[in-house]
Write a structure and sequence with these properties.
7 helices, about 65% helix, Rhomboid-like fold, about 190 residues
């Protein structure tokens, strides 16, 4: 039996997140670099870095390990279906949208939660055809994201925001990329 490097984007995000957590533990001042920006300042080069790099920082080991577990379960499936470049691009899109939304609320976010929820959203529409709403997606939205909305109303609204944005981005992109229904002409080359 041979060990394979099956999902380079997923494994890369997990590995870099572990390295960042180690850096944050040894050098606590580094943590601010791996959190979303607190104000819009395009003249500050760190602003753009933080808009994406915040997904690599985590508050504690429990936060990190929960995100890694879910990403390791879902990431390889999404990556196998869409490719590593696309997976990393949608992860970056989720990171930027989450950072800007948190900025608008005056909060900072950290962690892979938004990316994990993007994978959940994408997984819930796996196999969908254009013009269809899979029952699995409706159940995921109803159960998982419904719980996040309830927490949003009761708690700090920061991590729940990441989860909601990730789920919506994942489900939306997944539906947008759905295969044509039988008999429908594909616009793909």
């Amino acid at each position: 039996m041979k060990v394979t490097w099956n999902a380079p984007g997923t494994l890369g995000l997990c590995g870099v997140s572990l390295l960042v957590f180690g850096l944050q533990t040894v050098l606590p001042g580094v943590g601010g670099v791996f959190a979303s920006p607190v104000r819009v300042d395009p003249a500050e080069p760190l602003f753009f870095v933080q808009c994406v790099a915040h997904v690599l920082g985590h508050v504690n080991f429990s936060h990190l390990s929960n995100n890694l577990l879910l990403l390791l379960l879902l990431g390889p499936m999404v990556e196998a279906r869409h490719g590593t470049g696309w997976f990393l691009s949608i992860a970056a899109l989720t990171a930027v949208v989450t950072a800007l939304a948190a900025l608008g609320l005056g909060h900072r976010v950290q962690g892979l939660s938004g990316v994990v929820f993007t994978c959940i959203g994408l997984a819930s529409v796996a196999g969908a055809r254009r013009g269809e709403l899979p029952v699995t997606m409706l159940l995921v939205l109803g159960v998982y994201l419904g719980a996040e909305v309830m927490d949003l109303l009761r708690h700090d609204a920061v991590s729940q925001l990441s989860h909601l944005i990730g789920g919506v981005v994942g489900a939306g992109v997944g539906l947008a990329l759905a295969r044509p229904a039988p008999g429908e002409r594909s616009s793909e080359p």
